[in-house]
User: Fold this.
Amino acid sequence: MIELITRRYKKDQNNQKNYADLIIMDGGIQQVRAAKIALQELQIKIPVVSLVKNDKHRTDYLLGLNEEKIQLEKSSQLFRFLEALQLRVHNFVISGFRNRYAKAFTNDAILNNVSGIGTTTIKKLYEKFESIGGMRQASTEELSTIIKNKKTLERLEKYLQDMSNDYGK
Assistant:
């Protein structure tokens, strides 16, 4: 948390108009304290509060500026707004992680070493053959259902063969 807050605000230290008026966190007292430490080290004064969830993963209360527990009426507009905000942020973060890891998988895929094979083709190969081993076992005809270019297909087969020789598989 300290690293996250530090990175976020250090880049804007010369332009304080980009600072938030209030930081509303999703987490407990440890996250709030970590954020406050980071802000204090950067000599930035932004109030920090937190939405705390109960053991059923539902928003329970607000952790105030002085780390006091503030119970909000669950039917109040403020509570519903904060709960909706928390859910949107949570969904945004989760989708961001999913996209990053999906992208990392294809960007770091071992098949990027084969000239002529891009992200879309890599995804199609993994969808059909599930693994490098499945691709190695596939016939030329099976691979050609995805890779139409003969030269690219030859490069892929050579690459898979070389990998097999290198790793003994």
